[in-house]
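Example record

The entry below shows one chain as it appears in the dataset: sequence first, then structure tokens.
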Amino acid sequence: MDRRKFLATMAMIGAQGLILNESPALSAGRNNSGAVLRRKWNGRFDEDLVCIISDLHVNPGGYQPAYLERTVDEILRLNPRPRNIIALGDLAYLTGRPEEYALLKKILAPLDGTGMTLTLAMGNHDRRENFWACFPEQKAKSLLDDRCVYVVETPRADFIVLDSLQQGEDTTTWITPGALDDRQRAWLGDRLSKYTGKPVLVMAHHPIHETLVRDLLLDSPSCCGYIHGHDHVWQTGWQRKNYSEYSLLPTLCVPSTGHWGDIGYTLLKMGNDSATASLREFEFFFPHPVEKGEARPPQWAQIEQAHKDASWTFTYK
């Protein structure tokens, strides 16, 4: 091959985004057109760091995909990197259409081959059969064959990820409340009973008053918290079983990556005695970003300032 043909071939490879001799040290980013690029990454992993994203609401033709791309790019720049990324549902825009999951897969593609493991839960705007068709590996690792239920293990604590989606027969709408079926609830109780020392945090798309697992978690000697999405805000709190017991269950609602409300993601760092969640907020908007030329409401900046450096700690039992 002469020099001219060689240069032409290399240009074609570059244009198609192909990689020769790809190794785990390579990570992905994007150029201005959104195409996936690869760049060398010389950082390290933190096995005790977990990234939590939620309420992606990937909407082909909408503004939401660009916000998710920003989050993915931000995660790729983290050093150290989390070994695990957990998405707490509402992956699709409204009704879990196949094209929404196809676009989601494309946006998440830069995370492939980076050494980070992605776990995707279901929300009330998802549709399991369409999701599984696009992400068969997620169905394969689910611990229940008819739900998206996972256990994510880390050195210091484990994460039980539940499926609170109530899916109806009508594919053109959705059921907003979250719930666990009897089989999943029984599975959760059995799983929690096996934890005798290692801390565990339970996660789902919907808040705890909808999943109705409060007493089950408070009775567990190892469960130290509940984390959810759905409400699109950074919100901390705690649950009690009654007024005569000391035990409390810390709860945390995490932000959306880009639909409305608090916009960003969460990093959860496990330590010897506790796990601390830190908010990485890009901005706040409601009900949608301002149109071009419009001024941002001052309340949005006030909320952003109030959430600056926000964190929440789950103390191990």
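Notes for this example: Confidence is low (pLDDT under 50) at residues 1-27. The domain at 21-315 is CATH 3.60.21.10 (Purple Acid Phosphatase; chain A, domain 2).
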